[in-house]
Each structure stands twice: as C-alpha cells, then as structure tokens.
Amino acid sequence: MSTPESKVIESRVPSRMDRLPWSRWHWMVIIALGITWILDGLEVQLVSEVGPILTEKSTLGLSTSEVGNAASIYLAGEVFGALFFGYVTDRVGRKKLFMVTLSVYLIGSFLASLSWGFWSFVFFRFIAGTGIGGEYAAINSAIDELIPARVRGWADLVINGTYWVGAAVATIIGTVLLDPNLVPHQYGWRVVFWIGAVLGIGVLLIRRHVPESPRWLMTHGRNDEAEELVGEIEEEVKRETGIEELPEPEGSIKVRQRGAIGFGPIVQTMKMYPRRSILGLSLMIAQTFLYNAIFFTYGLILSTFYHVGNVSLYLLPFAAGNFFGVIFLGRFFDTIGRKAMIAGTYATSGIMLAITGYLFTQGVLNAVTQTIAWSVIFFVATAAASSAYLTVSEIFPLETRAMAIAFFYAVGTAIGGVVAPSIFGALISSGSRESVFHGYLLAAVLMVLAAGVEVVMGVKAERQSLENIAAPLSAAEESTTRA
Asked: Is 79 exposed, middle or buried (0-12, 13-18, 19+ CB in 10 A)?
C-alpha cells in the first residue's frame, strides 16, 4: 500500500504499547510466537538421533556422508529462509510472514516423512529449514514490537531459551520412537517427522489470534488501523487485569508515511550504524561458534574420550542448564542492564570454557563431571547467546528490523554452523585431548573478545522504547517527544 511520502502523522502507538501492564494477552503472544525455538530444538535433536537410523537398508539406506550433507542442506535452508523471509517481512508485515513461515516448516517436515531416497529427503529438509529460518526474523520482530519495553529483554531471552525445551523433549521422544523393540525403525523415523508437523498445525490455530505489529502498521501508511488495533488490545488487557484506567502514554512520535522499502534503505541503515553492525556480528559469530562447537560434537567427546555408548540422555542435564539459565538470568538484562549482563555472560562463559578445557586435557574429568561442567557453562552461555538475538533485534530501525535479524543470524550461522563442527570434528578425530583443548580455547577467546566489543560498543537498551534506541527511518525530524 503506497502513501504520499509528504504526509506526516503524529502517533502514540509505541508509548501506548509500552505502558501496558502484563496480562494474559502477552502470555498468548509469547506462547504462540515462541514455539518456534521449541520446534527448532525438536527438529535438530530428533534428526541428529534419526541420522544413524537412516543409514539402514530398511529406511532410506543413506551413507554417513549423505546424512551429514542432509544436515548441512537443512542449515542452508535456514540461512536462505532467514534472508528471503526477513526481507519480505519488512515489506508486507509480521503477521502474514509468521503464518507463512510456520506453514512452510509444517509442509517440509511432513513431506520429509514421505521421503523415498536421498534427494527427496534433502529437498524436503531444505523446505523445512527455510521455514524455520524465516521464523527467526518474523518472530523476533513481532515479539519486540508487541512486548512492553520494561520486560522486553527477559521475554526475548526466555523465548529464545525454549530451544532447549524442544531438544529435551526430542531426546525423550527419541528413546521411545527410535527404540526398535518398541517401534520398528522403518516406521519410527517417519513418525518423528510427523510430530513437528502436528505441533505446527496446533500453533497455526493459536497464531490466528496474534495481531499485526501496530508499530509496523504505523510506519507503512496504516496509522488509523494501528490506532484502532491498539485500542482493541488495551480493552482486552483491561478486561484481563481488572484495571479500569491504564497509565497515560509517555510521549509521541511523528512519522512520515511511506510504503514498502527496498534494499537501498537496508544497506544505508548498516552504514548509519557501523558500530552496531560490528557489535551484532561479534556477538552472533562468537555465540554461534561456541554453541555449534560443543552441541554438535558433545556426543563425539563422550564416545571417543569417555567411551559412552548411549549419549542421548546426557543431553538432558545439558538442556536443563541452558533453559534454566535464561529463566534465572533473563530478568537482570532489564534491571542491571544490557551492557553489564551481556559483557558479563560472554566473558564468564568463555573463561569457564577455557578452565573446563584445561581440566579435560589433564584427564581429571569423567563423562558425568564433563557433562556437569558443560551444564554450568551453558547456564551462563545460554543468556549470552540469546542476548545476541535480542541485541540485533532492537538496535536497528523498525523498517529494517527483520532484515537485520536475518542478516546477522545468517552470517553467524554460516560461519559458526559450518566452521565450528568441522574444526572440532577434525580435532576430536585426532584423538588428542590437547588438540581439542585448542579448539575450546579458540571458542573461549571469541567469547571474551565479544564481551570486550560489548563493553566498548554496547547499547543501553534496557527499558527503552524501540523508537528511542533507533528512530524509524520514516521518523520526521525532531519527532520524538516525552511527556
């Protein structure tokens, strides 16, 4: 929808959304949109467990290298989906895309269960990955723009941390569906992919009730619709909380109405905020390298150096440490503040990893104590990793928010997702504990360096309106006022 660019309107939509008390409506938004990370965790873990089974002649009869290639193609789908759907999300809106991306994932996951060979399997996995990648951009944008500023950090971190709920559930499901004594392998692996599709259908029904972002409407020539929508949300919140009168909104913003934007303004935004671009890349690459280095090779460590047969159940305490880390630490990102907590969690997790790597080299750990050490490290590292997504989702203008998330996610995933597992796979296959320690040390150094970048270039975004952190590209000069 195009609108004359000369038309300037004054809106209180952002301040009206930020001053809303927490209600059941906000929980609905979190559940409906946050399921993305549960599905991603479910996908990655289940497929990692299904991989060896797909090499059997009674299933797809894939080779070991084909199983690895399938994982890489799923990852490539995520990168493509993030970039493509991120761009479209900024053009056509949040609601349309978070319905479309989930539908794409649902279709890809279901079709994967019908695969008849390698090429059909990787094609359907690429489709599923595209949907999940698109979810990252569409969902993070919607969450930040619908959740009040005072709790945005906690909400974003907790939602991102639910990835590990999916991973834990997948481990439990896998022990049943992939046990040949309970379900024959030729059927069990197909049922695994149906699970994601069934969950996706349920979430689609819930997401129908999540509205378009009023902030997006406000800056795309639909301010009357945005004002009406916020009014409906306010009435629902008052009914749910029993509050007769809401607090007075603090300030307004003037925006110049415009239609969809192209790639030009997106590139220009990166030039406008070079320090923030460096910050986003540093945080995203460091945490992605750390997570992929450990998570995708923990089974190899346990089996190669500790001779553990079934490594699946060792994931449960690892997942618990990750999830409860964001639950406990998340609130401090809104109270103590972004810079202190982001720098602190990055540096602490990096130092602890270096210490654990040294103990591993000295041979003083066993399978249990190694797992406990990882759980403690990632109790802190999970908050650091989630804060990377939080950072890139709130420090760029509204009109380019989804594309910014997609860009940093894609770069981080492409580097950390491809490089880290390859490096650690080679180090582990050497059989040398010292070689593996050098890999841990590299991950630790990246985390500490990212902490330093946060100290120097971090943005104090806690409890701040998104428009105060980065003014919309459509904002008229001297547009923001405070009551």
From this structure: buried
